[in-house]
Amino acid sequence: MNKEPEIFRLSQEQRKKLVQEVTYLLKEQVSLQQALREQQQLGAEAKEELFLELLEVLDALEFLQNYVTEHIESVPKSWASLPKALASIEKKCLGILSQRQVKPIDFQDSQPDFSLCKVIDIEVRDDLENQTITKIVRRGFRINDKLLRPVEVITSKTQK
């Protein structure tokens, strides 16, 4: 039961047509791969835009939570549990984002790291050296290893 492989003989015309078809298929494959990469890029950009919009909602929640906590004595007694409820909503939102690899940047340095931070304001402070972070205005976030939103900070400047 020893089978010899069949040998096909192609005419010059058949060979030329086969080469043309293979060339066409290879070009089509490259074109489809490029289209797929472009679609994946568009999808990733749309996701990032959605995450940035959700972070705006999270910022508003955080602002409201801080405001209510700081002014708890001036709000109606029925709102006493509001800070805790807002903190719970914030925690859930952060959990949802975390499941999608969007995580807050834990930034504790006193000097800005310009690969992670964006200085949005400068305040004159003679008690601090130049470019000392005086306040973190908005938390920064990463998606996987990519910066999604920088940490927004206010830094000091000495008046000389």
How would you describe this protein?
The chain has 160 residues and is of the alpha+beta class. The chain folds into two domains: 14-100; 104-160, Head domain of nucleotide exchange factor GrpE (Nucleotide Exchange Factor Grpe, Chain A, domain 2, Roll). It is 48% helix and 19% strand. It has two helices and six strands. It has helices spanning 12-70, 82-99, and strands at residues 102-104, 117-124, 133-138, 141-143, 146-149, 151-157. The strands form two sheets. The protein has a three-stranded antiparallel β-sheet. The protein has a three-stranded mixed β-sheet with strand order 2-6-3, with no helix packed on it. Strand 4 and strand 5 form a beta hairpin. The model has no long low-confidence stretch (mean pLDDT 92).
